[in-house]
Write a structure and sequence with these properties.
By secondary structure, the chain is α/β, with parallel strands linked by helices. It contains 9 helices and 11 strands. The chain starts with a strand and ends with a helix.
Length: about 300
């Protein structure tokens, strides 16, 4: 049976990480075929001591604690991937609760399809009830995209996509060795909303001909902190993400048709969102109005990145 390595990068989230590790212990997978690699990214809250104590318990699988002093999740993931012993690397975050069948579902999906990477389902775990102006169109900002209850294939030639993100993704170890790890210059840093490392890694896999699979049975619950449920957070995140995606477009073009340095289809999408915003405003549909406004902020960020990049 395949050895699986679960990678968790963490920084100053001792309590949440403890809950994540407890959920991993409850996996329906043989303990002697599972290792947990925790990469501590310069925590100061006693996280290393907690992980060490957890690893000493007789009821847990092999747990290894690594230390990465360079700030940034990408550095931590890359160190964890280099040290992992498993043939499949399963990534999650330190504020995620995987379902008991999570690892098994990922392994079965990869074995049955022969895919190079897998994307699981992510459900929101609200710290406080979401405000009425939030709609599912905005769940991607909160890293809780739900791509449905049906398995589907992911590859460059298909229109169906489910981008792997750190909360719930898996990749064969040889893919990381072949393509390299996550780019630190696009990765998440503390006190910023920059988050493009997963997107870039995903595009690199697709352009290399890798195939993926979305497996809804590989399900996790991802914490949505109350502090993120503010309009300003969404607007800033999407504006910054637009700038990141504009840089990715230069490396991984999605079209050959541009207008003023921007793909023509994005101009059409922006016009559609502007019309939606107008209709929602007239109809007093707060969730739809705000969702369209955020997409327009995303487009503004894209324009800024595209034109500054040129």
């Amino acid at each position: 049976m395949t050895v699986i390595s679960v990678l968790v990068a963490t920084h100053d989230r001792r309590r949440l990480l403890s809950e994540t590790l407890e959920a991993i212990v409850r996996q329906d997978w043989p303990r002697d075929r599972l290792e947990v690699v925790v990469v501590d990214n310069a925590s100061s809250d006693g996280t290393p001591e907690m992980v060490t104590a957890f690893a000493a318990r007789p009821d847990v699988p092999a747990v290894r604690l690594l230390h990465e002093v360079r700030p940034g999740k990408s550095h931590a993931l890359n160190q964890g991937a280099a040290a992992a012993l498993g043939r499949i690397l399963v990534c999650t975050d330190d504020d995620v609760l995987p379902d008991p069948g999570w690892v098994r579902a990922i392994v079965e999906a990869l074995d049955e399809t022969g895919a190079d990477f897998a994307v699981g389902r992510i459900r929101p775990r609200w710290e406080t009830p979401p405000p009425p102006w939030i709609s599912p169109r905005l769940y991607g900002v909160l890293a809780v995209p739900d791509n449905g209850l049906e398995r589907f294939e992911i590859r460059r030639s298909l229109n169906e996509h489910a981008m792997p993100i750190g909360a719930n993704m898996a990749v064969r170890a040889e893919v990381v060795r072949c393509l390299g790890g996550w780019r630190a210059d696009m990765g998440k840093l503390r006190h910023t909303l920059r988050s493009g490392e997963d997107h870039e890694f995903y595009l690199r896999m697709l352009h290399a001909g890798m195939r993926g699979v979305y497996e809804p049975r590989a399900s996790v619950a991802h914490l949505v902190p109350a502090e993120r449920l503010r309009r300003a957070y969404f607007l800033r995140w999407l504006h910054d993400n637009g700038r990141i995606v504009s840089a990715l477009e230069r490396e991984f073009p999605t079209t050959s048709r541009y207008l003023l340095g921007v793909p023509r289809y994005l101009w059409r999408q922006a016009a559609t969102e502007l019309a939606r915003f107008g209709r929602a405003s007239l109809g007093r549909q707060a969730p739809e109005r705000f969702a369209s406004l955020t997409r327009l902020f995303w487009f503004a960020g894209y324009l800024r990145g595209a034109w500054q990049g040129r």
